[in-house]
Design goal:
about 5% helix
Amino acid sequence: MRCGYSSHGYNYSCSWQFVVRLRSTNYMEITGGCVCGGTRYLLKSRLFALVDCHCIDCRRSAGAPYVQWGSVPRPDVVITKGEARKVSHANRIRSFAACCGTHLFFEDAKDSETIDVTIASLDDPTPFAPQKAIFLEDKLPWVVIDESIPSFQTIPKKQ
């Protein structure tokens, strides 16, 4: 497949070896998966609510100083290969690749309208820069916050 061409109503652009297809109807397919390739997923819509989360639960579940998340409507997340192992903790659900343990998804509840996706598990995370930082009350002291985005000690109040 060549980069930068159109075919069958799709415009193709490449980043490394991965392809994002954007149909003229604004239908987007974003792909991602785990580190070993055993679990793959497809997102049928663009991510929104892009955040860097510094809460202790995210840090510990990922083994990282913070986790970047993006949200999509629940019906727009499709696992295309392998399976996700769901773990409930603190009345929330985190999903990890069953094959290798890569952290993939977060749900506020089993019937929540949206699912949060780990941005680092996307095949091409570069277009999804954070829009805000949350739970700074749990931030590690040596983590530097991007001062160009809004930051919150917990989560922003809904308006």
